[in-house]
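User: Sorry, what's this?
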Amino acid sequence: MSDDGEPHGTAGRPMLSALLHGGVGDVVAVVTRYYGGTNLGTGGLVRAYGGGVQRALESMPRAERVDLVTVTVAVDFARVPALEQILPAFEAAIDARAFAADARFSVRLPDAQAEPFRQAVRDLTRGRATFGVAVG
C-alpha cells in the first residue's frame, strides 16, 4: 500500500479498504490521477482513489477460483459404466481414457472432491481400483 506522494492516508488506504470490502481476492489496483492537486483536498483525494477502485470492482467480471487436480484411476471393464455415472456428483470430467488389460481414466475434478471421489470409486470397485494423482 502506497500513497506515492499524496498526503498520508489519501490514496493507498482508501484503495485497500475498497479491495478488502469488495468481496474479491487475488486482485491488485493501480489508480492514476490526472487532475486534482490541492483543488480536491484530502477528502476529495480519498473519494477519488477509493471511488475509482469501487467503480472498477462494480464493473469487473467475477468468477470463483477452483483448484483442480487430475486423478488417474484404473478399473476393470465391468465397472466403467458405474464410474462414468458417478462423475457428475464430484464435478468431475474425463480428460483421457485408455483401454488395455483394464480401463484407465484421467479425471479432472475440484481438489476438495478428490478424496471423496477416490473413496466412492473404492466402494464401487470393492477396493480393486488403483489411483495416481497429478496436480493440474
Observations:
- The chain has a mean pLDDT of 89.
